[in-house]
């Protein structure tokens, strides 16, 4: 994982919403599933997974928009209320506790290259994956791929994630 952290700030096109990542992300997924292709209008989505309390708003307030997802449980996308750009998502698994920050919205997106390529069974045939970066046909085993530091950070919020998931089952 890329350990040198630049000042990781980002935001939308109109600059109404600005944010900072206060630490390096847990993991950076490059997802080649059809949902991500459709939603991005491109060949893949590049998401930096990070605890939501480590995404610090510097300006503005994103609007949270519920949209469908492959799981059937939906995802909430943080969008600028003015230019409508998607900044990050919350998926049903961890809900509001984890943010999947759109790496392309960072001021220096090159600072966070993918740690893994996922759902490569549906990747576009012209996308060539770099040697040396893990790639899996669908999803992956966190224990097998995440660095120890990220696993430890996730363990700290695991009880909150479990509590959040319990509220979904009651709904």
Quick description:
By secondary structure, the protein is α+β, with helices and mostly antiparallel strands. It has a single domain, classed as glutathione-dependent formaldehyde- activating enzyme (gfa) (Alpha-Beta Complex), CATH 3.90.1590. The protein has helices at residues 34-40, 142-145, 148-170; strands at residues 9-11, 18-21, 27-31, 45-51, 55-59, 63-67, 75-79, 86-91, 98-102, 116-118.
Describe the structure.
It contains 3 helices and 10 strands; from the N terminus they run E-E-E-H-E-E-E-E-E-E-E-H-H. The protein is an alpha+beta fold. The chain has one domain (9-170): glutathione-dependent formaldehyde- activating enzyme (gfa) (Alpha-Beta Complex), CATH 3.90.1590.10. It has a 7-stranded mixed sheet with strand order 6-7-8-9-4-3-10. Strand 6 and strand 7 form a beta hairpin. It is globular, with a radius of gyration of 16 Å. The model has no long low-confidence stretch (mean pLDDT 91).
What descriptive keywords fit this protein?
171 residues; alpha+beta; glutathione-dependent formaldehyde- activating enzyme (gfa); 7-stranded mixed β-sheet; 3-stranded antiparallel β-sheet
Q: What is the gyration radius calculated from CA atoms?
A: 16 Å
Find the CATH superfamily. Answer: glutathione-dependent formaldehyde- activating enzyme (gfa)
In what range is the share of β-strand residues?
25-35%
As for the CATH topology, it is: glutathione-dependent formaldehyde- activating enzyme (gfa)
CATH level-two architecture: Alpha-Beta Complex
What order do the helices and strands follow? EEEHEEEEEEEHH
Number of strands: 10
What are the low-pLDDT stretches, counting only 5+ consecutive residues below 50? none
Number of domains: 1
Mean pLDDT: 91
Name of the CATH class: Alpha Beta
Helix coverage percent: 10-25%
Distance between the termini: 38 Å
Question: Major sheet: order of its strands?
Answer: 6-7-8-9-4-3-10
């Amino acid at each position: 994982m890329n350990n040198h952290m630049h000042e990781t700030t980002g935001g939308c096109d109109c600059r109404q919403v600005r944010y900072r990542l206060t630490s390096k992300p847990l993991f950076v997924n490059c997802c080649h599933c059809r949902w991500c292709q459709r939603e991005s209008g491109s060949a893949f989505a590049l998401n930096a997974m990070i605890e939501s309390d480590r995404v610090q708003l510097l300006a503005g307030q994103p609007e949270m928009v519920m949209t469908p997802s492959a799981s059937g449980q939906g995802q909430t996308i943080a969008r600028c209320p003015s230019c409508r750009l998607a900044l990050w998502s919350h998926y049903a698994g961890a809900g509001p506790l984890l943010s999947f920050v759109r790496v392309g919205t960072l001021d220096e997106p090159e600072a966070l290259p993918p740690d893994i390529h996922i759902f490569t069974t549906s990747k576009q045939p012209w996308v060539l994956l770099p040697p040396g970066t893990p790639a899996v046909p669908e999803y992956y085993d966190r224990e097998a791929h995440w660095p120890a530091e990220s696993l430890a950070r996730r363990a700290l919020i695991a009880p909150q994630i479990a509590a959040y998931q319990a509220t979904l089952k009651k709904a």
